Amino acid sequence: MTFDRHLAEIAREYPQWTIWRSDAGRWWATRHHPISAEQRDAGCAMTIDADDPEDLREQLRDQERRAGEPERRAGPAPP
């Protein structure tokens, strides 16, 4: 699968984040909205990075759990 397709799938799965891949090949996600002090204390971050798309998905799931958001199922979002 191409990295463009991975980007599109992750962006559909996590619409509250901006997803991109750097020129160095790192995968990144930044939240669209600020986090609260409570979320920050729970380990939430505004921006995360990963080596590959699956690691980024894992980190995004962890961020949602820490933020108290409902967990998503693994894999692409339904059409």
Write a structural description.
- Residues 50-79 are annotated as: Disordered.
- Residues 56-79 have a biased composition (Basic and acidic residues).
- This is DUF2188 domain-containing protein.
- With 79 residues, the protein is α+β, with helices and mostly antiparallel strands.
- It has one domain (3-67).
- 39% of the residues lie in helices and 18% in strands.
- The protein contains 3 helices and 3 strands; from the N terminus they run αββαβα.
- A 3-stranded antiparallel sheet has the order 1-2-3, with helices on one face.
- A hairpin with a 5-residue loop joins strand 1 and strand 2 (27-31).
- The longest helix is centred in the last third of the chain and has 15 residues, at 53-67.
- The mean pLDDT is 88.
In short:
By secondary structure, this protein is of the alpha+beta class. The chain is built from three helices and three strands; from the N terminus they run αββαβα. 39% of the residues lie in helices and 18% in strands.
Largest sheet report: 3 strands, antiparallel
Shape designation: elongated
Radius of gyration computed on alpha carbons: 12 Å
**Model regions low in confidence, pLDDT < 50 over at least 5 residues:** none
Helix content: 25-40%
The number of domains: 1
Structural class: alpha+beta
Order of neighbouring strands in the sheet with most strands: 1-2-3
How is the topology of this model organized?
Layout: H1 3-13, E1 17-21, E2 27-31, H2 37-41, E3 47-50, H3 53-67
Antiparallel strand pairs: 1-2, 2-3
